[in-house]
Amino acid sequence: MKLLKDILYKAGLIEVIGNTNIAINAISFDSRKIEKDSLFVAVKGTLSDGHKYIDDTIAKGAIAILCETLPKNINEKITYIKVKDTTASLGIIASNYFDTPSEHIKLVGVTGTNGKTTTVTLLFNLFTKLGYKVGLLSTVKNQINDKIIPSTHTTPDAIQLNALLRQMVDIGCTHCFMEVSSHAVVQNRIAGIHFVGGVFTNITHDHLDYHKTFAEYIKAKKSFFDSLGNDAFALTNKDDANGEVMLQNTRATKHTYSLRAMADYKCRVVENQFSGLLLNIDNHEMWSKLIGNFNAYNLLAVYATAVLLGEEKLNVLTTLSSLSSVEGRFQYVRSDNGIVGIVDYAHTPDALLNVLA
User: Of 188, 193, 215, 304, which sits most exposed with the smallest number of CB within 10 A?
Assistant: First the structure.
């Protein structure tokens, strides 16, 4: 429970009607999930407009309303807060409500069309093996140390995200690795979140049903890097045509990784077999159970991220070599009679081509 005036800090208020010195029991943007003494955030979604349900939420127990347009009929017992964009303000308010958890953990966001899940999961497994308490936010699952929480979106909504980060901080997690989808960026699900680093894997023609054009898709990915602070790092794949575009306006410290060009973090594939990869990373050879050139990129991104987070290079490479492939991501199965099976989640043309190649 928090005072409304405290959770409105930096939320971009335009107008306030009513008392802000009231205790808020919960925050919700779903009118069906309103609790007594809660703040309802009226969000204009793709299917419906939360402003239509303001009266319903008051009847269910909401005592404060965050909206972009004030209702015609003002209830004198209710506090109304007008802002320009409720989705952006929601992220800041949710962060305040849960005592700004992202500022108390080393949170790294990974974005790109392919490789996000593999990269964040490898980072989670790596830092767990290095002895840290770690959190994971991914398409497959959310995890806090050994506790697994089912995942419904690539990136949770702002309230769920801050609640999960709060749980991580409360049990002593020092790091969290998180997939950042383009949908989440556009929908302001990461508003108010502090990242210590951002990683770009690659970009292909995906999600154009949502973003409409490739330019808009690139813009969504890039705006994540634009939002990073000067205390963060931005790591990009230099071999991707749009890799360096991501770094153009970021305030973060810029770093690159590559298999083909000069970069801060360099890798060469020495051997690529069904049994694994022999890689030369920063002039040190390491063997990995993962398969394929695309996994060489993932492993290099993980290595670079770990080093940027202050880990010792040889220790990272040694620990990386012990990690297995991520569930559903190019899993290699060989039967007793020599039949080889590959299990992979590839669901975009580029990902499928990479798997088959």
Answer: 215
Q: How confident is the model at residue 139 (pLDDT cuts 50, 70, 90)?
A: confident
Query: Are 163 and 98 within 8 A, CB to CB?
Result: yes
Burial class (CB in 10 A: 0-12, 13-18, 19+), 351: buried
CB 84 within 8 Å of CB 14: yes
Longest dimension (CA), the chain: 76
Between strands 13-17 and 79-83, the pairing is antiparallel
Rounded Cα gap, residues 31 and 76, in angstroms: 20
Rounded CA gap, 281 and 288, in Å? 12
Of 149, 129, 127, nearest in space to 140 by CA: 149
Answer for the pair 299, 290: CB distance below 8 angstroms, yes or no. Answer: yes
pLDDT tens digits for 159-191?
999 999 999 999 999 999 999 988 889 889 999
Which of 172, 168, 159, 111 has its CA nearest to residue 136?
Answer: 168
Other residues' Cβ atoms within 10 Å of the Cβ of residue 147: 11
- How large is the average pLDDT for residues 199-203? 95
Q: How far, in Å, CA of 79 to CA of 229, rounded?
A: 33
